[in-house]
Structure formats: C-alpha cells, structure tokens
Amino acid sequence: MVRTKIKRGLVYLLMITAGIAVAQVLYFYQFFYQNDHFLPGVAIASMPVGGQHRNEAISGIEAHFADLYRTPVTFYYQDFNHVTTLGELAEKVDINQAIEEIWERERQRSIRSKLLNLDGSHQIAYAPPIRYKQAVLEMLAEEWNEILGQPPVNPQLEIDRTAGMVIVPGKDGKQVNIEATWERMPKEWAAIDELRIPIVLEKVYPSISEEDLKVMGELASYSTWYNSGEVDRTHNLVKAANAINGRVVKPGETFSFNRTVGARTFETGYRDAMVIVSGRFEPGVGGGICQVSSTLYNAVLLADLEVVERHNHSLAVAYVPVGLDATVAYGIQDFQFKNNTGHPVYIRAVAGGGRLTVTIYGHLSHKKRVEVSSVIDKVIPFEEIRQVDPNLEPGQEKIEVKGNPGYVARSFKRVYDKNGELAQQVQLATDYYKPLNTLIYTGPELSVPLDFVDTSPEPPAVEENPDDLDNSYSNNGAVTDPMVPSDSGEGNE
After folding, report:
1. Is the pTM of this model over 0.70?
2. 442 contacts: CB under 8 Å, gap ≥ 6
3. Which of helix, strand or coil describes residue 469?
4. Domain limits of the chain?
C-alpha cells in the first residue's frame, strides 16, 4: 500500500516536473523565436536596441546613421589636410535591409548565448559593413597626386657639341597609394568621434635606368621642316614634340601618340592653326601636330618597328612625301607602334630653327639599313571654282584657295641584312588623297545703264584704209576699250 502511494507520488512529481519543463521550453521558444523584440544587449552600429520591436527600431537607427554620416574625417600628409565626412565617402545604408539581416542573425544565435545574457550585461554588437564610393576614392587619389605627387623623370639622352651623346640623370618620383591609405579606414559602421587618416605616399621609379641608356645607340632619325614664322602652328608643333620627347617604350609595349600627347584644347595650351577639315584647310585647335606624328612615323619605319595604327591625310601635305604621312585626331584617329626589338627604345624629339627631328634609340643589335619610298600611281587634277563676291569691284578677282592635285600613292619599305642584301620588301599602304580645288572670288559683272546705250542708226560703211588698222592696238597687241575697266592685279601671283 505504501509502495503504491510512493509510486503514485513519483509519477505525479515526474508529471509536474515534465510539465514545468515543457512550460519552460514553450516559454523560451516563444521568448526567443516568436518574440518580435530584440533581446537584451543587442546593439546595431553601437546603438542599443534591446527590448525594441524590430519595426520600431527603424526610426531610431535612421537617426543614428544620420549622425554617423556626419562623422568628420581628416586625411593628412605633413602640412596638407583634406577634411570631409563619412557620408561623403561611403554609400548610404539600406536600414530596412540591414535590420532584416541582423534580425535573421539574431534568430540563429545559440540558446546558450541568449540564456547567459538575459540581463543584457554583455553587448551583442552587429555592424553593417561600410561600402565606400569607388568613384570618390579615384577622384581623391587624382586630386592628392596633383598636390602631393611627383612623377618620376626618366634619364634622357642629349647631344653635346664636344662630348657627343650624354646621359642626363633621371629622378625618382612619388605618388599616393590609395589602397594603403584606405587600409586605415573603418570597415564597419560604428559610433566614432573623429577620424584622422595619414595619406600614404610611395616612391615611383623611372621606367628606364641610366644603364639602359648606356647601351643604346641611334636606330633611325628623320627630319622635316616647318615655317617658324607661323607662330601658333610652331607653338603647337613644339608642344607636341616636347610631349613625346624622352618617352621610353618597353619591349612588347605599344606607343600611342594620342595617349602621350593628350587632348588638343585651349585648356591644355594648344592654339588655333590650319588643319584639314572636310577636305579643306581651316583654322582649328592643334594645327601642326600632324607634322610631329608624321615625322615620328617615318623614324619608326626607318627603325623597323611595328606599326600598329596609321592613317593618311585626306589632302596631300608638303612636309613629307605623298604616302608617308600619319594624321592624328584625338579620340578618332591615332598613330601607334609596337616595340618589337626585345629591348627598350627611346624617343628623342627636338624642334627649333624650322626643323623637327625625331630620333629612335635602342640596342644597337637591332640597327638595320632600311629604305622607305613611295610611288604615285595616279594624279587627280583639281578644278577651278569661281564665286561672285559682292564686296569686290567689278572685274576684280581674289584667289581664296590655291588648288592642289589629288593622288593615289603606294608606299614601300625595304630592309637589308648585314651583308647588304635585300632581306624584306613590303608594301606599307595604298593611300588616296583628294584634290583641293582652286577657289577664286570675282567681283560682280559691270552693268551698263540703259541711258548710255547708243540706239542711233549705224553710219554708212566706209572703206577701211589699211594704214589706219594699227591705231586700234596698244600694249603689245592688246585691244583697248574705254568701256572695260583695266585689271587691278589684286590677288594674282
């Protein structure tokens, strides 16, 4: 009997214990998994949200992030300071998405972690990642490099009248390392009073050494002539020549004339001079630059370097033979060549006294005898076009444009071996050049008033006296007529 009662008591006790356990499980399940409030100790970007409904926390988090965006950031290098804010540097956070992601991470947090922190004594910190604006980083790097950076200077080859070819030493440069600078920036959103970030600068070395230049010799040289009296055109030509002077092209590298010289605008220092536009010579920014690219083209051919891109002018030019020019137009047409020698090559461009010379230096093992020529297959005659200009006097003429014929031309390159034997002969191109028509402006025709027209009947015919015929001629046989004005000769050559 007693044993029966004990057994019943134990059963009741077990049932009560089990009930309590089930109740606790249900409670914690509801508390941890069915509750829509953040648990004690939870913080988002350093802001406590424990006990807050996840939807109610949105407004507080938005205000908190508005403060975070105003966090001051100072980048500095020696005496230079650049002050901005985190909001200017980073992308805005999607608050709703961030809270949803953090809420899901909270659901996956272990029961043990949650039980041990029911009093909220320990902070459970969640911080959305900071995503910086790549365009802003690139802009800052460019801006800082203009202020703090210094490009390296390659050693250069110069010609001394007494010492011959001499080497001018180069200089190391420095540039901003934007990646190393950004390593100091925070990776996650959190409450920060102020950020002071040092700008990291690193050394940049010349692309060629003095030792490289010591083993170099002249591979080829080519010169063209220009009229130094044309001041603006000369300015553009010299500026472009200086841009390519001292450039080093590494083995396998492709040299781009447009990338090297840059955009031809008034802002970059170029001036108006005559250029070819739609088959006519007209003033345009950067006129004269094509003489530099054409001179370089011929030097490249004579050095037997690989031409990657080249275009001929629409009209024939005077400074190089027909078929051996290379026109350029920024963003449209470029002149490019590839260094196929296996050693660095060096470009020296010098303009002065009406002469432009481009010389290619490289390892003398690549020096060859090269001949370049062109033949004209067809000459296309130009036409003479006359247009009336009311500002001219009747009978007056003005030559506005002198005509030049067009051509169809082929260009060739011959390469000889060390024994002087022809090793290679290639046709470079077949080029078409439009004719440039002569344009002559003429004055309006002379109109005779009706009152001056003689309407009287003709007198009877009189037998001519042969002795009187010479009276109607003068000026070595030219017929004179008082009603036709004499030619003033203006505009004629």
Report:
1. no
2. 386, 387, 388, 389, 392, 395, 396, 397, 398
3. helix
4. 1-29, 215-442
